[in-house]
Amino acid sequence: MQKTAFITGITGQDGSYLSEYLLSLNYKVTGLVRRNSVAENQDYRLLNINGIEVMYGDILDQSSLLNALNKFKPDEVYNLAAQSHVRISSEIPYFTSQVNAIGALNMLEAIRVSCPGVRYYQASSSEMFGQNIDNDGFQRETTKMNPVSPYGCAKLFAFNMTCHYRNAYGLNAANGILFNHESPRRGSNFVTNKIVKAAVLIKKGKLNKLELGNLDSFRDWGHSYDYVRAMHLINNAPVVSDFVVATGESHSVREFCAYVFKKLELDYKDYVTQNPKYMRPEELKVLRGDSRKIRQELGWIPNYNFEALLDELVDYWLSKL
Ligand code: NAP
Ligand code: F7E
Fold first, then answer.
1. Which ligand 2 atom minimizes the distance to the CA of 285?
2. Ligand 1 centroid vs 296 CA: distance in angstroms?
3. Residue 125 catalytic?
4. Whose CA is nearest to atom 46 of ligand 1?
């Protein structure tokens, strides 16, 4: 029988890749879309994906969540809705906390009262670890969590609530603790597409400098295409549990710049400057994930490595600009 998935945050980077992936598995894909004053901006990432059914709603509007669950009667729910920008979360901490923390609680409560049997996936984040790193240099499911941003604090609330609803009410609720993942569909104010887009503009003579914040933070960057497959595996795991999803490779922002500019036959040092505007009140310095649990228990393997991801981004911006 055909399964139905309901996705909040369906218009985002991951929502669009997850929709495509679930459609390829013959799911009926449904989702929640926020009203935008420019109708074209509402769902532009979904424009080339056929067969999705959406309704207007908001993760902060409990009635819209209950209406959606009642209408779509999903087998699986993916809660991806979030204010997902870490630095901006310091400018709008209250809003970020509402959406990322209370929004997740709204979804859990709506499921508890209306369809407690569904499988629930919560989009948790490596940002929850803060500066904690195990002795071997990795973060994993058992690593202590002390977030260093309003975004991370709100995500930790949602993570804990997901565990609590699983333990207290028997919900099939799981967390994916995902490390950074990117794609051509990533917003261009995240560092990856910001760097690649600017480097291509510089190469084409349309820009002469790129202002960044901290060049010496390290991230474990994967591809959204690989990570939405992990979300589906987690939401169908034989035993409901939480999983880290990561490549296990960590690179600095500086290394990212060096690779991209070199690929375009440029030297990043000639163009990249630092602007305090892009620094964070408290920087998370190093992320590097150990994803052995999902690889061993659920058979997840990423297709992209660091170089393949960056090559795809460069090719995308070269053809787009
Ligand atoms: P994204 O591109 O920023 O997408 C976020 C989605 O949430 C958008 O569809 C957005 O709608 C929606 N949204 C925001 N506020 C909402 C609200 N009040 N009600 C309903 N929907 C709302 O983020 P992403 O990269 O796809 O990430 C997906 C999820 O994974 C997020 O929860 C993020 O925090 C988490 N995560 C991401 C990463 C990563 O590296 N990408 C890593 C770990 C965890 P609009 O289009 O209307 O703004
Ligand atoms: O920053 C540094 C910045 O904004 C990466 C989200 O998906 O992953 C993402 O959060 C690094 C940081 O992603 C600029 O300080 C330097 O060290 O691309 P980002 P993020 O903050 O790691 C986690 C796992 C999530 O869950 C989030 O939703 O790059 N950096 N200069 C800069 N970052 C930005 N954005 N802009 C700069 O100019």
1. 17
2. 28
3. yes
4. 11
Q: Compute φ and ψ for 305, nearest 5 degrees.
A: -110, 180
Closest by Cα among 155, 151, 159 to 190: 151
Domains and CATH numbers, the chain: 4-181+221-245 (3.40.50.720), 188-219+250-286+305-320 (3.90.25.10)
Distance of CA 257 to the CA centre of its chain: 22
80 CA distance to ligand 1 middle (Å): 5
Residues with CB under 6 A from ligand 2: 84, 86-87, 125-127, 179-180, 189-192, 194, 212-214, 217, 219, 253, 278, 280, 283
Owner of token pair 């999903």:
74
3-class DSSP state for residue 244? strand
CB within 8 Å of 215: residues ≥ 6 apart: 252, 253, 254, 257, 272, 274
The rounded distance, in Å, linking the Cα atoms of 26 and 4 is: 9
Q: Which ligand is nearest to the CA of 124?
A: 1
User: Is pTM beyond 0.70 here?
Assistant: yes
27 C-alpha to ligand 2 centroid (Å) = 32
Q: Which residues contact 234 (CB under 8 A, 6 or more apart)?
A: 121, 174, 176, 243, 245, 294, 298
Per-residue pLDDT of the chain (321 residues; tens, 9 = 90+): 999 999 999 999 999 999 999 999 999 999 999 999 998 888 889 999 999 999 999 999 999 999 999 999 999 999 999 999 999 999 999 999 999 999 999 999 999 999 999 999 999 999 999 999 999 999 999 999 999 999 999 999 999 999 999 999 999 999 999 999 999 999 999 999 999 999 999 999 999 999 999 999 999 999 999 999 999 999 999 999 999 999 999 999 999 999 999 999 999 999 999 999 999 999 999 999 999 999 999 999 999 999 999 999 999 999 999
Catalytic-residue membership of 126: no
Instruction: Give me the helix-helix angle, 253-263 and 306-320, nearest 10°.
Output: 50
Would residue 319 show up in a list of annotated catalytic residues for this protein? Answer: no
